[in-house]
């Protein structure tokens, strides 16, 4: 039914729209009292007369469309029955009926405490007789706690069902008309069904027609007052119609008033026919009712399925909707009007199959991408998104008629045929529309055009030949009796069937498909996962054909609204496929859209005139009247719906695409930049535009443009992919000028002169970096990082994590095997100024300056100064110092202790454990230091179990570092190495040097080798575990893949935005300072071929699933020795991992049905892309990947747990080095061979790393719920994150308790799994 037609029905029935319905609020308050059981002025307390327990009581759902009830008896076996639950704002109250001294009594129990401000209006308490009622109120959840018997579909409801109307409790004596409803569920059900048949309506009715009309008021539940008025009016009509049937028999034609009421109901249900008829069905509890010029059968699957499968189903020329027919729409010989099993019907179906209908679905369709229509152009011009029904029909008509008749209609012919979808569908009321002034002529015109098209088709010629054969003699005789040409009748019938069932039905299915997809992006995902399953379920929920009309084979009596109605044979008898498809006895949760229904259910649906399991097999025995075009209709609907919804994205965004413009481009778009040349930085999938940057000022944005706004000048070039290329793009004299100015300024600074540059270097530190140990690089680096950058920095919190707006692939920057995206399209805020300065301006100024500054630093002269007696020596340094220092540590920290960030946070990380005070004794380090590092702090994850004897001592643990001895070092630097063995108590006993010597406690070089071991351990952890594994192996891969493959509104993109925040920026910084040669890490470390490390290290990194299996996997953890299990790394880390596991499961479960099949296969296209991109990113960086193209959903989210642990708790565990690197005597990146301390220059360069990596980043425990705003299932996603926060607070409290105990008993604390300390990502 068109919206125009429905609007006419509404206008035509305006007089009854003025009826007044009592306010829903008044209904809701009736019979309610406060939770204490006291009348509050709005309720009706229970009657004072009590009822005996033996008599029992009824529990019922009332004042809503879905009615249900059940009788209960209290006795020795059941002394109390829970009946009602009310809940609001975290508090809940339950009510139960109990037996007290032989009388029924209503009692309450509070299951969840209520705040003083929360008031629940419940039923009155105490003994009751008669009836008591409690109704749903706004903001309060009302549930019935017992299964009841549904009065429409005759099934048992579920426990805890939420009620939108009321729940009533009645004594048995109050409902004497239900005296037969006793015993078990089956007996009660049978009694209720019998009562429905006796009444001719709902079993609760006692006064007709008043109760039947009043039933309409129940549809006001939930504020649907207009719907209630409509149902009430229709009930009045049906009551009168039942009396008319009794007195005068079936009418000659359908009432226009009835037609108007049906149209109004459909309009009120958003033009969903099924929902409208479901309302009528519930209004009468599913009994037979008058309809049109006949009767609607009871709304049961069993009745409709039996009739559909009846091999002798009677039919006659009365029309498909029991309203009479007219030759305006159909020929009387159409198979629609021929009885099943008749020779004529059987031969017609066989002839049609042979003429091509059995195989017409085979073969592919041509692409529709080039198709266009004036309707689509008009729709787009006025801003309409959803395709119109006419547009859908215009695409279907040529496909359908070509397949049926094996002849392609012209565009003009197809356009005429398509009009039938608009006008011809009203043939469902053909006798009624035949009286109209214009419509009958239009329909005849279309039918005539189709007939002329079809008569000379290959299908018609084949039919003509078959009609001459004896096996089709009966159908030929039927056609001859009409007096019309036999072939014309035969072809007309096929043409009419193609129009009415084929075009109208397929258009309806396809149009519904597009509407559902445009209105709910979860349906886009479901459809694209399995179009056929989707369309089947769509047609179960909202079938294109609501039912079919048979006729009574003999005289039959009905009870309707209290009237005894006897109808003659031949009366139209309507069966409802749509109501059968909603029968809860057949379909689990029938109102829920579930395309993954088991075939045992899906195969039962009736939408194609028979059970689907028989329809798909073309089984005439199981479904003698099945739709012959099922396969073709589904195929066409899939093709057209896919085409029309192609612009839609599975998660509500625009479709992803790949950019086709790369390299150097000229801007063609009008504006100030027209004609300028730039470089394509990346393709923004959200904007569907290429974003361009200035080719000379790296990072300077020139805006984003569509394909036709850019002209490719050069396909490659313009983007720096290496450090050398990047430096080359800086202004020509940058390096020279930076070196010259820096040298001049540094000299003035060191000599105490005052000029513009030296003032920038006149730091707040009490000491000056003198030339006897500090070169130009050292001074410039320290000034740039500590004196300038860190002072501008402000602590970042969860509000710095921005909602993503783009998806795209950006150019990559590479050093050896390591790479990082050149741009973070999520644009995290790094400096406070970014909150106020437009991103483009910030990118234009900060990024190029940053890159060129670091590039210039890298090219500064370099002398390790290890072979000097008076330079880079501690004795010289202390001699020339301005102040006196007790230790090297005090001197190092003097350069940082006066510095604060913009929000007054110290730039040097706050000391967690004072190793000097704890372990520096008699001018040497106590062996407890190595125990502390290995078992309680940063080294615990590298502990290995051994069984080794040494001079009578059992060595049971070791941390091995000799494998790193092969890495070559620059002249005079010591190489890394040392395998340190510990006894059963965890004390260091022996160290095996790289050359095989065994050094033990008390040996003269014991302190030296311990220093070497500590330094090598902390450095290897920093270089391998922190930098390579955490930042690049996991953080960089995860951040890159998620931005490339997941759209901004994809729930996994939003989720991982928390854990990938700032990763790209910090890794790009690391590419310059830590990975790149001749910079911070290279100059402070001893390595000779530094760049080779970026190739060597990644190839030896284990996948996170192997690296962390002993802490993440419960069974692997149990295999560890108890002493390792009890280390804080494992004990505290597993607390945090437990919370992460719960979060990942809780969050993924919200969307699992959209992303995974029932068998666990990844089916969401974006999640597939993400998984595949993770595989590709790992391969690109030469990492062994835990992901494969076959990774299923369970494995995928299990691996994600490992990744999230890596970038959170693990990152904090291996990334906190301030306590170690504060003291050159404790550990450093490098040292001269034979010296148990670091030299000043190398250690101070290294110290800038400790300061820069201590900047405050968003903590894991913070609130990130803003990231989930507007996404699918937002409330559940936010709830999952809030539960995670609550669990993290518990983890934090437990770790706090443990650290208090550690401090008081052992003198240390380990906060590196504390969610208030752990960052949400590797942003630092």
UniProtKB/TrEMBL annotation:
User: What Pfam families does its record include?
Assistant: Lipoxygenase (PF00305)
Tell me the first and last residues of the signal peptide: 1-19
InterPro entries from the UniProt entry: Cyt_P450_sf (IPR036396), LipOase (IPR000907), LipOase_C (IPR013819), LipOase_C_sf (IPR036226)
Please indicate which superkingdom the organism of origin belongs to: Eukaryota
Which UniProt keywords are present, listed alphabetically?
Answer: Dioxygenase, Metal-binding, Oxidoreductase, Signal
Which Gene3D superfamilies does UniProt cross-reference here?
Cytochrome P450, Lipoxygenase-1, Domain 5
Name of the featured protein: Lipoxygenase domain-containing protein
Please list the residue ranges annotated as the Lipoxygenase domain.
1010-1214
The UniProt GO MF terms for this protein read:
heme binding; iron ion binding; monooxygenase activity; oxidoreductase activity, acting on paired donors, with incorporation or reduction of molecular oxygen; oxidoreductase activity, acting on single donors with incorporation of molecular oxygen, incorporation of two atoms of oxygen
One BP term from GO: lipid oxidation
């Amino acid at each position: 039914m068109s919206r125009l037609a429905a609007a006419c029905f509404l206008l035509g029935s305006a007089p009854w729209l003025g009826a007044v319905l009592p306010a829903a609020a008044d209904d809701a308050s009736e019979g309610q009292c406060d939770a204490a059981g006291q009348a509050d002025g709005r309720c009706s307390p229970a009657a004072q007369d009590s009822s005996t327990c033996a008599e029992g009581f009824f529990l019922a759902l009332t004042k809503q469309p879905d009615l249900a009830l059940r009788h209960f008896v209290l006795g020795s076996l059941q002394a109390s029955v829970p009946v009602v639950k009310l809940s609001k704002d975290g508090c809940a109250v339950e009510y139960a009926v109990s037996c007290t001294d032989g009388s029924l009594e209503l009692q309450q129990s509070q299951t969840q405490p209520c705040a003083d401000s929360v008031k629940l209006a419940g039923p009155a308490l105490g003994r009751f007789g008669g009836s008591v009622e409690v109704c749903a109120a706004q903001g309060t959840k009302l549930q019935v706690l017992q299964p009841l018997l549904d009065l429409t579909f005759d099934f048992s409801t579920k426990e805890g069902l939420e009620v939108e109307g009321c729940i009533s409790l009645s004594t048995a004596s109050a409902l004497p008309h239900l005296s037969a409803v006793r015993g078990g569920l089956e007996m009660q059900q049978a009694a209720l069904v019998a009562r429905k048949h006796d009444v001719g309506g709902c079993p609760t009715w006692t006064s007709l027609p008043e109760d039947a009309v009043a039933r309409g008021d129940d549809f006001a539940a939930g504020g649907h007052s207009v719907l209630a008025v409509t149902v009430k009016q229709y009930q009045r009509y049906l009551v009168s119609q039942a009396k008319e049937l009794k007195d005068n028999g079936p009418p000659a034609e359908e009432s226009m008033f009835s037609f108007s009421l049906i149209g109004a109901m459909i309009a009120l249900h958003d033009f969903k026919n099924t929902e409208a008829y479901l309302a009528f069905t519930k209004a009468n509890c599913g009994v037979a009712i008058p309809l049109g010029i006949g009767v609607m059968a009871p709304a049961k699957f069993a009745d409709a399925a039996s009739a559909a499968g009846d091999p002798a189903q009677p039919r006659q020329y009365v029309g498909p909707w029991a309203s009479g027919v007219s030759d305006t729409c159909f020929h009387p010989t159409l198979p629609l009007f021929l009885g099943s099993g008749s020779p004529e019907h059987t031969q017609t179906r066989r002839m049609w199959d042979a003429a091509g209908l059995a195989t017409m679905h085979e073969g592919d369709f041509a692409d529709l991408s080039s198709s266009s229509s004036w309707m689509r152009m008009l729709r787009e011009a006025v801003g309409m998104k959803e395709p119109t029904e006419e547009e859908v029909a215009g695409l279907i008509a040529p496909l359908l008629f070509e397949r049926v008749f094996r002849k392609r209609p012209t565009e003009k012919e197809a356009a005429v045929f398509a009009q039938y979808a608009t006008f011809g569908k009203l043939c469902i009321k053909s006798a009624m529309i035949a009286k109209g002034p214009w419509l009958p002529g239009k329909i005849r015109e279309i039918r005539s055009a189709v007939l002329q098209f079809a008569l000379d088709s290959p299908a018609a010629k084949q039919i003509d030949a078959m009609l001459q054969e004896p096996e089709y003699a009966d159908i030929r005789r039927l056609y001859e009796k009409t007096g019309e040409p036999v072939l014309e009748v035969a072809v007309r019938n096929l043409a009419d069937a193609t129009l009415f069932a084929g075009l109208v039905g397929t258009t309806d299915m396809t149009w519904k498909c597009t509407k559902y997809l445009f209105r709910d992006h979860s349906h886009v995902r479901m459809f694209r996962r399995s179009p056929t399953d989707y369309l089947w379920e769509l047609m179960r929920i909202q079938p294109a054909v609501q039912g079919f009309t048979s006729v009574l084979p003999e005289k039959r009596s009905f009870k309707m609204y209290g009237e005894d109605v006897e109808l003659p044979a031949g009366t139209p008898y309507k069966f409802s496929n749509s109501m059968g498809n909603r029968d809860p006895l057949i379909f689990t949760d029938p109102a829920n859209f579930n395309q993954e229904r088991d075939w045992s259910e899906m195969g039962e649906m009736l939408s194609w005139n028979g059970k689907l399991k028989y329809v798909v097999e073309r089984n005439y025995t199981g479904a003698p009247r099945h739709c012959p075009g099922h396969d073709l209709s589904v195929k066409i609907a899939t093709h057209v719906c896919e085409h029309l919804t192609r612009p839609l994205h599975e998660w509500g965004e625009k479709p992803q695409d790949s950019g086709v413009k790369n390299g150097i481009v000229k801007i063609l778009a009008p504006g100030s930049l027209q004609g300028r040349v730039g470089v394509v930085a990346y393709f923004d999938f959200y904007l569907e535009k290429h974003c361009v940057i200035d080719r000379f000022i790296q990072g300077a944005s020139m805006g984003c443009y569509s394909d036709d706004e850019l002209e490719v000048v050069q396909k490659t070039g313009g983007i720096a992919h290496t450090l050398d290329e990047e430096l080359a793009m800086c202004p020509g004299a940058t390096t020279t000028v930076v070196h010259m100015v820096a040298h001049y300024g540094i000299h003035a600074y060191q000599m105490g002169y005052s000029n513009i540059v030296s003032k920038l270097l006149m730091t707040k530190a009490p000491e000056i970096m003198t030339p006897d140990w500090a070169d130009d690089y050292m001074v410039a680096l320290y000034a740039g990082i500590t004196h300038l950058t860190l002072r501008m920095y402000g602590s970042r919190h969860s509000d710095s994590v921005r909602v993503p707006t783009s998806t795209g692939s950006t150019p990559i920057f590479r050093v050896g095997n390591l790479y990082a995206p050149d741009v973070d399209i999520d644009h995290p805020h790094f400096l406070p100024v970014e909150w106020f300065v437009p991103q483009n301006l910030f990118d234009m100024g900060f990024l190029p300056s940053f890159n060129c500054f670091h590039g210039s630093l890298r090219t500064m002269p370099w002398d390790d100064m290890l072979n000097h007696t008076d330079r880079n020596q501690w004795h010289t340094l202390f001699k020339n110092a301005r102040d006196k220092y007790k230790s090297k540590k005090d001197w190092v920290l003097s350069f940082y202790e006066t510095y604060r960030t913009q929000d007054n946070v110290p730039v040097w990380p706050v000391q967690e454990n004072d190793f000097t005070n704890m372990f520096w004794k008699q001018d040497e380090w106590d062996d407890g230091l190595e125990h502390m590092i290995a078992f309680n702090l940063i080294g615990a994850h590298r502990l290995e179990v051994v069984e080794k004897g040494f001079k009578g001592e059992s060595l049971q643990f070791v941390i091995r570092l000799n494998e790193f001895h092969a890495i070559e070092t620059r002249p005079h630097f010591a190489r890394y190495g040392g395998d340190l063995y510990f006894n059963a108590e965890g004390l260091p006993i022996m160290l095996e040097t790289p050359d095989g010597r065994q050094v033990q406690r008390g040996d003269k070089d014991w302190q030296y080798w311990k220093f070497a071991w500590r330094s090598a351990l902390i450095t290897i952890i920093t270089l391998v575990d922190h930098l390579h594994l955490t930042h690049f192996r996991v953080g960089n891969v995860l951040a890159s893949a998620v931005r490339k493959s997941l759209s901004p509104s994809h729930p996994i993109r939003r989720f991982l935005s928390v854990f990938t925040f700032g990763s790209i920026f910090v890794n790009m910084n690391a590419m310059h300072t830590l990975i790149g040669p001749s910079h911070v890490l290279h100059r402070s470390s001893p390595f000779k071929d530094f760049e080779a490390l970026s190739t060597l290290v990644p190839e030896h990194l284990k996948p996170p699933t192997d690296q962390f299996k002993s802490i993440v996997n419960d069974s692997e953890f149990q295999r560890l020795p108890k002493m390792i299990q009890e280390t804080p790394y494992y004990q505290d880390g597993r607390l945090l991992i437990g919370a992460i596991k719960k979060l990942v499961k809780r969050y993924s479960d919200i969307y699992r049905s959209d992303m995974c099949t029932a068998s666990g296969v990844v089916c969401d296209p974006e999640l597939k892309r993400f998984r595949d991109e993770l595989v590709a990113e790992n391969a690109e960086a030469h990492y062994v990947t835990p992901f494969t193209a076959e990774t299923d959903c369970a494995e995928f989210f299990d691996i994600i747990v490992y990744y999230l642990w890596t970038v959170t708790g693990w990152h904090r565990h291996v990334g906190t080095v301030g306590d170690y690197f504060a003291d050159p005597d404790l550990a450093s990146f490098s040292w001269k061979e034979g010296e148990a301390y670091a030299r000043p220059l190398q250690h101070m360069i290294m110290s800038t790393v400790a300061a820069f990596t201590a900047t405050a980043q968003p903590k894991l425990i913070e609130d990130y719920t803003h990231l989930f705003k507007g996404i699918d299932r937002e409330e559940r996603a936010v709830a999952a994150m809030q539960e995670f926060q609550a669990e993290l607070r518990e983890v934090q409290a437990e770790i706090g308790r443990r650290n208090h105990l550690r401090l008081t008993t052992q003198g240390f604390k380990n906060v590196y799994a504390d969610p208030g300390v752990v960052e949400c990502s590797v942003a630092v």
